[in-house]
Design a protein that fits this description.
Number of helices: 16
Distance between the termini: 63 Å
Oligomer: single chain
Number of strands: 25
Helix content: 25-40%
Strand order of the largest sheet: 2-1-10-9-11-12-13-14-15-19-18-17-16
């Protein structure tokens, strides 16, 4: 059963869970998940965490922070993030998680833009963050903060619609936007997850293992809140460690795994072992972006289902899907159906509904009198962007999907990853899937580059399995022409040692686009446009 039926805030739900599950494990960071670094392994029960949260509240109170203030925290993927979230939440203070792996410019902008009154960071970042905090905002290392004076703290009740966190988007187009997330948002995500049942049934005995960073909503709002409402345990890793992954899974007794698409692909490359089948222990994986070619292979080899889900920081539980019911259409990028309290449209570029089965942008909203219920509260200091996102009373996701029978949705690509060539829409992910089927290709990313004649052309950035020249580039285009319509094949190919990645190990699409534009401008890639022209001539 859930233990937050009357909770109006994250902190209230936590206090209820701590009273019920005091001696049960709550947060863990195992040694294998810190890569043997300077950060020691940690483990807190619910009761221990409740006492530590109380101490943190008294430390924050000594800083004289008022309710509705914001505090930026930068602890990388340490479980401290969750404890500080809980402590600040009870005081009515919003948390701003900051990725210390970001550039100085991005970090300084987030601290300034968020109007954070204080920055608390890992000790190794104290000097850097002190320089980036700017006037009117003090930065302090965790050790110094925890050694400070304590003062009685006043907990604030009834926080449901007040801001709990300001979470910044990845900023793949322009500056990152600050998404204001309420207590209602957090509780809604947790209640959605714990209410799924079936293949996703969670109990207090579950241990949810995640290598995803707490400055993103999946870890901060989804796995953490679900564990909190169920009295389960979160096992937080600093990042994904392929070589020790299954050992960590077994040693930590993980029953649920949160993943991103790159993880199954990497794990399938590991040597086979008698310990591969962990299906007797792991109930399911919760994630998104598994390559269709790997989905069934992974489930067969490791013995548990990968349940593909979809949501956005902006949509929260107001519009979320998961393919957790059979048939799951494994290998077809099926993301399931929207929750019952949501409704959707699939539209073309003019906002007109497309025919069933045709790709279009997904627009979503909550049913009933409040179409924004469960969604983010808006972009901080950017009402214009908020209005544009909600134009016409629907939230415009920017994701392209197609709708199948029974309301099932299938992910196609981000709209900004759609290449518009001579009036034809090309999904980057479709071209990538064909390239990845070639033995020369270890990894790749496809993007649009400007073309004076056709508007945009297809650029492929490829990580080859061995040294590659124009001969190999031509072979890759020929391979694509055999399986794709001629206009979808790459016009330009460049080889690289590695793809640019974000902190959460996703392909950094913005950097790929910049790289593609630079390669074309500098003629440092292979221009193979004539191959597409020949193909067009042959096919009429």
């Amino acid at each position: 059963m859930e233990h937050d039926l009357n909770a109006n805030s994250i902190f209230e739900a936590f206090c209820d869970a701590a009273a019920t599950f005091g001696t049960r494990p709550f947060l863990r960071a195992p040694a294998t998940g810190t890569n043997g670094g300077a950060v020691p392994p940690v483990s807190w029960t619910y009761g221990e965490a409740r006492r530590e949260v109380g101490r943190l509240q008294r430390l924050y109170a000594a800083h004289g922070l008022e309710a509705d203030a914001r505090v930026a925290v930068a602890f990388d993927s340490r479980p401290d993030v969750y404890l500080h979230l809980l402590a600040l939440n009870g005081l009515g203070i919003s948390v701003v998680p900051v990725n210390s792996g970001g550039t100085d410019r991005d970090i300084a902008r987030i601290i300034a833009h968020s109007d954070a009154a204080l920055v608390v960071c890992a000790d190794e970042h104290a000097t850097r963050f002190g320089e980036l905090a700017g006037a009117g905002c003090r930065a302090v290392g965790l050790t110094e903060f925890c050694a400070g004076a304590e003062r009685d703290a006043a907990v604030i009740p009834g926080l449901e619609r007040r801001e709990a966190a300001l979470l910044y988007t990845s900023g793949t187009t322009g500056h990152p936007k600050g998404c204001m997330l309420s207590n209602e948002y957090f509780l809604g995500m947790g209640r959605w997850y714990t209410g799924l049942g079936g293949a996703c049934t969670l109990t207090a005995d579950d241990r949810l293992l995640t290598p995803l960073p707490p400055h993103h909503m999946n870890a901060l709002c989804v796995s953490f809140m679900a564990a909190l409402l169920r009295g389960a345990c979160v096992v937080q890793l600093d990042r994904f460690h392929p070589s020790s992954w299954w050992r960590t899974v077994r040693e930590e007794g993980a029953t649920v795994i949160h993943y991103l698409g790159v993880m199954p692909a990497i794990l399938l490359t590991l040597p086979r072992s008698g310990d591969d089948d962990v299906g007797a222990q792991v109930k399911f994986g919760f994630g998104a972006g598994c390559d269709p070619r790997h989905h069934a292979l992974f489930e067969q080899r490791f013995g548990f289902p990968l349940l593909e889900a979809w949501s956005m920081t902006e949509t929260g539980a107001g519009a979320v899907t998961i393919a957790d019911r059979e048939p799951r259409h494994v290998g077809e990028r099926c993301i399931g159906r929207l929750a019952r309290g949501s409704e959707h449209r699939v539209v073309d570029e003019r906002g007109k509904d497309v025919d069933k089965g045709q790709p279009g942008e997904l627009w979503v909203r909550a049913r009933g009198a409040d179409p924004r219920k469960g969604f983010f509260s808006g972009y901080y200091k950017d009402e214009r962007a908020t209005r544009e996102a909600w134009a016409g009373g629907w939230f415009h996701t920017g994701d392209v999907v197609r709708e199948g029978s029974g309301g099932l949705l299938y992910f196609v690509d981000r709209r900004k990853n759609i290449i518009r060539r001579s009036g034809e829409n090309i999904a980057a992910v479709e071209v990538e899937a064909v390239l990845l089927a070639h033995p020369l290709v270890l990894n790749c990313a496809v993007t649009a580059v400007a073309d004076e004649l056709r508007g945009e052309e297809v650029f492929a950035l490829v990580v080859p399995a061995e040294s590659a020249t124009e001969i190999e580039a031509r072979a890759l285009v020929a391979h694509c022409l055999q399986q794709l319509s001629y206009f979808k094949a790459p016009a330009y190919v460049a080889f690289t040692d590695r793809l640019p990645l974000t902190a959460s190990q996703k392909v950094n699409r913005a950097e790929v686009r910049k790289h593609g534009a630079a390669c074309v401008a500098d003629s440092t890639c292979f221009d193979l446009r004539e191959l597409k022209k020949h193909r067009r001539a042959r096919t009429g």
